[in-house]
Design a protein that fits this description.
The protein is built from seven helices and nine strands. It has 198 residues and is of the alpha/beta class. The strands form two sheets. The protein has a five-stranded parallel sheet with strand order 2-7-1-8-9, with helices on both faces. A four-stranded mixed sheet has the order 4-3-6-5. The site of guanosine-5'-monophosphate has 15 residues, from strand 5, strand 6 and helix 4.
Length: 198
């Protein structure tokens, strides 16, 4: 059985983190790529679990050594996907999911055979705004910058292989499970129920 590697992309605040944690609880066998970033951890984020938090110098070294499958600057920080882990997990026949911004999705789509891009879309623009403010993790100016970026990100939707509208988490998860080629368990796995808010 081979699974389809997925790049999940969508505007900040659309609920990628919530959908991914629900997906993992349904399908604990999924391997979710852990990105490197130069941004500071948010409260509750754990190094090595949500991201590997790196200094600018360490990020530069990874780029120079070819250790990143892709990388991009987003707002005032940089984010990248460690190459070796992704290649290894695909080689092992694991179901691989990467959560990236639009720039990263473009790069991975061009570099990784068989990968499918999935755009997680909000039900409406107003709902996206409401979710970003409701999250309460960023200041208003940061949210407004993210909404500006989101306007551009929405244009990427038509270039993706699939669009999943995140009206309701469980139905979004069911669509993703089908795209990856997995079978979901009826009961969520409590151990994987951790919210990985991104
Ligand atoms: P956040 O700061 O909210 O965790 O993430 C900001 C943006 O960076 C999100 O759109 C997220 O999908 C994206 N992102 C996370 N990891 C990566 C990565 O490895 N590469 C790229 N290109 N974008 C990423």
């Amino acid at each position: 059985m081979t699974f389809t590697p997925i790049v999940l992309v969508g505007p900040s605040g659309v609920g990628k983190g919530t959908v991914l944690s629900a997906l993992r609880s349904r399908c604990p066998e999924i391997w979710l790529s852990v990105s490197v970033t130069t941004r500071l951890p948010r409260p509750g984020e754990v190094d090595g679990e949500h991201y590997f938090f790196l200094s600018d110098d360490a990020f530069d070294s990874l780029i120079e050594s070819g250790g990143l499958l892709e990388w991009a600057a987003y707002q005032t920080s940089r984010y990248g996907t460690p190459r070796a882990a992704v290649e290894e997990k695909i080689g092992e026949g694991r179901a691989v999911v990467m959560e990236l911004d639009v720039q990263g999705a473009r790069q991975v789509a061009a570099r990784l055979d068989g990968v499918r891009t999935v755009f997680l879309a909000p039900p409406s623009w107003e709902e996206l705004r409401r979710r970003l403010y409701g999250r309460g993790t960023e200041a208003a100016d940061v949210i407004e910058r993210r909404l500006d970026t989101a306007r551009g990100e929405m244009d990427f939707m038509e270039h993706c292989d699939h669009v999943v509208v995140n009206t309701e988490v469980e139905s979004a998860v069911r669509e993703l499970v089908k795209l990856i080629g997995l079978a979901a368990s009826e009961q969520p796995d409590q151990r994987a129920e951790k919210d990985i808010h991104r």
